[in-house]
């Protein structure tokens, strides 16, 4: 129990020390990291540099074009994580989607992504594009996901209704430039 309290205090001190640096460097003051995001971490995690307020956002977004079931393309953006940059290197992609636990649509990627330097885990939200590292698959959330996990990396976000995303059978993802 003593080590759990010690880890909690170390996390709190590290988060408190990084908060001024992260907020001072942020160009978007509209959103802040919820206090529970760092306490929801499943175990000790060392980081070499401060992480952005949300893994769904990035300081220099990479816009992508997403088409579900051959319909009109929707807006989407990838964040600036190493895994998102590695995913972008695979584009363009067309993948068949399957439902997983009435929460997300999943598809196998052609190869596993680089997960080194992954940001602090966050729970996936509706519209998030994520990568589940143990299986090497892409996940598109049409319901809020489970608690934050180091195995699930949010790569970006897609602007589409949960109903449309939940029924999608095929996705095409392309870079916009």
Task: Describe the protein in words.
- This protein has 177 residues and is α+β, with helices and mostly antiparallel strands.
- A nine-stranded antiparallel β-sheet has the order 3-9-1-2-8-6-7-5-4.
- 25% of the residues lie in helices and 27% in strands.
- It is globular.
- The chain has two domains: 2-39; 62-175, Cyclophilin (Beta Barrel), CATH 2.40.100.
- Strand 6 and strand 7 (137-141) form a beta hairpin.
- The chain has helices spanning 2-25, 35-39, 82-90, 162-167; strands spanning 62-68, 74-78, 93-96, 98-100, 104-108, 128-132, 137-141, 152-158, 170-175.
- The chain contains four helices and nine strands; from the N terminus they run ααββαββββββαβ.
Question: What is the overall shape?
Answer: globular
Q: Total number of β-strand segments?
A: 9
Q: State the separation between the terminal residues, measured CA to CA.
A: 52 Å
Beta-strand content:
25-35%
CATH class of the largest domain: Mainly Beta
Low-pLDDT runs? 1-59
C-alpha-based Rg, rounded:
17 Å
CATH architecture of the largest domain: Beta Barrel
Query: Order of helices and strands, N to C?
Result: HHEEHEEEEEEHE
Helical content stands at 10-25%
Domains, number: 2
Number of helices: 4
Strand order of the largest sheet: 3-9-1-2-8-6-7-5-4
Structural class: alpha+beta
Largest sheet: 9 strands, antiparallel
- Average pLDDT, rounded to a whole number, is 76
Q: Look up the CATH topology of the largest domain.
A: Cyclophilin
Organism: Streptomyces dangxiongensis
Protein name: Cyclophilin-like domain-containing protein
Pfam families: Cyclophil_like2
Signal peptide: 1-29
